Amino acid sequence: MKVKCQKLINWALPYLAIALMIYIIMYPQIISHGMILGTDSIFHFNRFYDAAKQIQLGNWSYFQSNYSFQQSGRVINAVYGPFFAYLNGILLGLVGTWFRYQIISSFLVYFIGGVGMYQLAIKARAGRRIALLVSLIFLCIGWLPRWELAQNMNAWGAALAPYMVMVGLTMITDQHQPVHWLSLTALMVTIIQIHLLSSIFFTLTLIPFFIVGLIRTSQRGPMIWETAKAVITTIILTGNVWGALLMLNLHNHIAQPAPFDMNINALKPSQFSSARDYLIYFCWLLFILQLLYVLFNFRRSLVNSMVTIMGAMILLISSTWFPWTTIQQVLPTLQTTLQFPSRLTVIAYPLLLTGLAISCQQLVDRTPRSELRSRLITGLLLFTLFQVAIPTTTIVFRRTAIYESDEVLNTSTALAWVTNNSKSLRRSVHTDYPGQLLLKVEKRAPDYLPIPKKYLHRFYVRSYAYQDQVIRPARHFKHTVLSHGRLQLSWKAKRAGKVRLPVITYHESQLVVNGHHLQNYQRSRVGAPYVQQRRGNNTAVLSFHQATWFTVLLTVALIGLVIFLAYGFYRSLLWLPQKYQQIIH
Asked: Using one digit for the tens of pLDDT, what is the confidence trace for 339-360?
């Protein structure tokens, strides 16, 4: 029994080390109880709060935002990680405050990513020590820390990317069964329900692995069939995502995200940063040496050659050395879709770190003097870890310190209004009433608004229009959420005439003003309706009526996910005893 416990502890040690590293990174925030409110915090907090209130009150509105975004009724969650928003709403409801939510969700992002990188390196046949060190390095670079620092959704793509690479490695190493439809489906459904752009990255990355696997395997028919099963199942289980996008774009001109200068937002070398758009010089040198090693030992390992060359190519494309200035002139749509070329490091880093782990293990396994070489390589990886961990922890410390300053917020980008009372703002992230924060900080984000065609490409016009037409006047109306996901506005007018309501209407929206169902009415450049008010008390009721075919897609996706999760749970019950036996033996 003692031997079994010892083996179990030894197996758990790498995961405890990953948890300890996460604690070190997050320590400045944990010890000070400081909240980091970054570039995307308020936007996503609005999304998750709306989902939390729907769950709490049982008043569901899949499309219409009735509890957040100034209670404007705009569509966000339905087309942006819908089920993931509800999961975050559940987490927020359980923990109660934004601070607790940020600590727990940040830990989850780090831990999922760290464990994934460790398992990926192990799958690539690296030893436990090397696998652990590259996983700790992975925790400190790229987009993974950005969830704690700014609540950027790319962090979730970064956390799941190692699992995607594992699926790719199976395609080229398992010649008997290159594709396991269950794991491929689980991966793609998860990332599509979280972040659509990352799912595109994942798909494009898996294509080369699939082609090589198809060439190498003698089981081409079964491989294609398993892939087809995964594709069909994924389409069914994500019908709520692509169905909502299709329905909304059929009859509305939907605003695209903000355009960005791609060259400015490409990856750059840095002396003291490896987060988001930067990578320290030493890591550049390490990745170049890794590429040279593979080029001189090309035939030694297919896995190493493939992940390294793919990773190096993607890293180059993500950097300022790629002609992004010219490309964005030729393909301007990339400025609103890809936006930041540095996002591609979500894929590049796990690929290159996998290759680095393989190369290090190959050098360690060489004889003679393998022990000396092992110490040198361990020292090199530890040095790299310190090079990336110190800057990342320092950034967390600096951003946490801003919380105690008069500014409180880490950014003022696109903020329409922030309370002058910094003390009340700090209290709002620790109170059990998380909606208070969203009343003290409001952001003008015109994503997914129904825009008249002539304003589609004028981002800043519609951004400030949303601020002037929805955010500022919203406080002059009383908002009440009615049953069946309806939203009621009440106001008192001194005179009759035309008034613009601070809500957003789509082709699918139904608007009833003072008991009259409106069919044709004028709308502003951001979709706010102009209606006739009467003197005295007025009411308007807004509802969103989704297409019947979408309701079918949503129902099928929900039922399918329940069945898929139940099947996955059943398979896990069968797998866990076998895994336990492997550990203790």
From this structure: 999 999 999 999 999 999 999 9
